[in-house]
Amino acid sequence: MSVTRNHLQLDSTRLRRHIVHMAYSGGSVHLGCAFSIVELMATLYSKFIRYNPKNAADEDRDYLILSKGHGIMATYACFREIGWLEQSALDRYFSDGSLLHGLCEWKIPGCEVATGSLGHGLPVAVGIALGLKLKGRTQQKVYCIVGDGEMNEGTMWESLLFAGHHKLDNLIVIVDANGFQAMGEIPAVMNLEPLAAKFNDFGFTARECNGHDLAALEANLRELTETDPAEKPKALVARTVKGKGVSFMEGNNTWHYLRLDADLFKKAMNELGGEVGA
Amino acid sequence: MRNALSDLITESASNDPNSIVLSGDHGYALFDAIRKKHPNQFLNVGVMEQAMIGIAAGLCKQGFRPTVYGLSAFVPIRVLEQIKLDVCYPCLPVTFIGDGAGLVYSTLGVSHQCAEDVAALRALPNLRIYSPCDAEELRAVYRDMRGFSGPSYIRIGKGDRPVVNAAPLESGVEPHYTVAGKAGACLVATGSMVSISTQMGRELGLSVLSVPKLKPLSDRIVAELSRFQEIIVLEEHSRHGGLASALAELLCELPHGRAPRLRAITLKEKFAEKCGTYQYALSEHEMADHQIKGRISQLLGL
Description:
The complex is a heterodimer. Chain A has helices at residues 12-26, 31-35, 38-48, 72-82, 87-91, 121-134, 154-165, 186-189, 195-201, 214-227, 262-271, and strands at residues 63-66, 142-147, 171-177, 180-181, 184-185, 205-210, 234-239. Chain A is of the alpha/beta class.
């Protein structure tokens, strides 16, 4: 089997159920960070990323680099649906000797790069995009999901400068603009706005949309990847809600740190209308 | 050694289309040859050492074997975490060249000097560390790296010290005697200190062992050094974490009474005080050429 698009349409609610299940099983934090990118991940794997469901490392694949490694549970949820992870890996999350860490690890097929220390994924994504260009591999694209808090890091701006200068039009940077970083609201800690304008100034074509609106995400990503000018890297500022999908987590930054107890687990699962393990 | 480095970099590009050199806007004439002969295999990334390491890691994922060049004060010191996470952890075939190590940039001051690179890197898994003293050792380093699929760091110190090795090294990067003197005491040196140590060995009748590969150290080195009663390690690096530390860590595991006594002539625990020539900068650490003989004699009671 080779790489193609549209293997499977991922359902955001199912993905969130996997995340709640993992977070509760492992006593994991970072729920809010995963929930804000669920629709993004679902759209990318459903409609845009060319992959081989039998081989995450297929050399013809598109790349998805999760630079904001804190959202990793959303990635694991997608990989479970695609078939790259077994259900037991999710069930055993954080248990002794288990497979999956709480941040992004290069060893997990499909994860590509070790991130979680912020400001690492985008430079590597830029290197992959440059490497694809140098090898003449024009079919492949590199998607990179970054956090708005992560944009504090100097390496991010170094990478944008480089990508703009080298016209890496196979690179699509997607900002999960959920408005929070670990210790507070973005405008209070380190203002980023106007963010899309900053990307444009760095030589990108930038768009902006609601990061939970599947139709808007698809339309904007399609324009970025299919009709927007060549010779420019692309950026999508996805306006999201941290903790999106579970009422008591939405817009509440403490869910960067909190763990689910039995009651909250049940409440979250009820809201998501499902059972453990989806 | 700089001409040899330029030749080796260019030769690597000629031999392997996947060889690519990244520089953080440093190096200038060092890259004249590769830029002329293989312009597509050299990239001045700009003054962004941190992103440069990630970019090199990304290039590895497309089959490239990048060489990342910088001054040792910046590559590896400024980018230590990038080297750890982006390159050493996935064990990618990146060659780091840290030029001007030690006090080479004596007149520029502390920002460009580097006494701590080996110490900082030695704790990173997967990474090989080399410290060649001249062109022949450097050629041996490149031969050794060719058969290795993980990351390497080459420490390039003062490049215009007198040549030690006149012919290709049959022993490659293994420790090798530049002077085979009397049993008893041995000078163990690396990089920029091998030349002056060799001169001292000849004058004082001491054995001199050059160590071009600092990590992993040769399996033979403990047996070799336990033949001596006294060893003096000479390195243009901090006393902490360099060759002297590495040898002490190994020798202290020998049974009681079997290990040679180890002393070290290294950079001291201080930053540069005043400006001056390379020899002046070394003299602030009692390591100038004219001070070495006295220090060895004093340590050995000669």
